[in-house]
Amino acid sequence: MASAKIKKGDTVVVLSGKDKGKTGTVSKVNPKDGKIVVEGVNIAARHRKPTQQNPQGGIDRFEAPMPISKVAVADPKDGKPTRVRFEEKDGKKVRVAVKSGETIDG
Asked: Residue ranges of the KOW domain (predicted)?
């Protein structure tokens, strides 16, 4: 199995859609479905009827999953979107930003 290029905790930039250009931190990754949840991005609203658990009812707002292909990792140097490649440093496989050559994790 190949290593994931985007992981939980990464800072990403949205490439397309209503939130294009926004940045956020990845809170959940679902590689099986090819979806990702980013904090503060792709906010969806659900109108809830009053129930016994929630007598007030109202509108629930939450971060909806979005396709992984719509985001790119933010470059550690300037925060712009970049692709990710893998390199071996000191016998360890690390993720590297293609634009700047900076190491993304440790």
From this structure: 5-32
Residue 96: both structure tokens together: 């590297």
Strand, helix or coil for residue 72: strand
Which tens digits make up the pLDDT trace of 37-62?
999 999 999 999 999 999 999 999 99
In Å, how far are 5, 20, 32, 51, 66 from 37, measured between CA atoms? 15, 15, 14, 28, 6
pLDDT at 27: 96
- How far apart (Å, rounded) are the C-alpha atoms in residues 48 and 59? 6
For 1-106, strand residue ranges (E) read: 11-14, 23-30, 35-38, 43-48, 58-63, 66-67, 71-74, 81-82, 84-89, 92-97
